[in-house]
Design goal:
The protein has helices at residues 50-59, 65-70, 74-88, 94-106, 111-117, 141-144; strands spanning 29-31, 119-121. The protein has 155 residues and is mainly alpha-helical. A two-stranded parallel ribbon has the order 1-2. This is Terminase small subunit.
Amino acid sequence: MPKGGARARSGPPPDPNALRRARDKGDWVLLPAAGRDGAPPEWPLLKPSRRESELWSALWAKPQALMWERHGQEIEVALYVRNLAVAERSGATVAQGTLVRQMADSLGLTTPGLRANRWRIEAAAPVAEESAPSAPQRPSSRSRLKVVRDDSPAG
């Protein structure tokens, strides 16, 4: 095996907040936090199991689904779903779990996968909290100290 040279995903991942570096320049896609609207596409493989149907519907509601749809990745997502359903079963091999993680990265379902695809999910709208009455301010320890004057003769 040759030494050195570039390898897949070697080096630091792209950082959208450090766009001064040449390797980080490029188009980042901002995906809506609300995800994809509408029904999932038709299942492209042979008959899905009940679990595969559940996963398929849940995944196609995610923000990343907008990009899968744009790039026609229905088969890739279905293969991920099928392998995830197998990996969830008791007795699944470590290799099966590794494959699922790699596929999740490729589909942008993990944080490293989002970075590698140059996708960002917009921040969700902050939830307005009811303001609770604030606790009364306690005096600081310094303000509680008293200066005591010593009128006794020095001696």
